[in-house]
Amino acid sequence: MGGKLFLKVFLAFWLVSCAVLGSWMLTSEYFASRPVQALEDRPGAGPRPHRFIPHMIYNLQTTPRESLAATVKATRERDGIDIFLLDERGADLLGREVPKDVAYVADRLQGARRRAYFSAPHGHLIAHDLYRGDMGPLRAVFYLPQRDGRILNTLGGNPLLRIGLAV
Asked: What is the pTM of this model?
């Protein structure tokens, strides 16, 4: 009798654990794969899908040189994200003035460090090293402006809070 109860509790625990983990994975994949337009329709849309930055880095590395300005402009209009492409001197390839915060986070890419992150009161800045065969090494800085919605912004900026809520 005691052995069957233990087996039932043991199986119930692991089945519930697998169900929770599976639903978390499905939910995460669902929100990550939603198109950007669907996210923009919500007030306080929160951060971009986690695959946005890697896709943009790939696009910036492979887009023809004459199309870079159009790619950056389209991203600004579609997603509200400014992208600065900086050369080794720190000048923007598109001739724009480089804000102090953008220069600061780009300067943090030193040595083997390929990524840098800076959280400012007005938004988040993410810098990545990238390489183009026709231009050499560049630094791309993504400026993600702060969205409306304090709860989502707080959750997006604090991983420990997200973990605490998940548990």
From this structure: 0.60
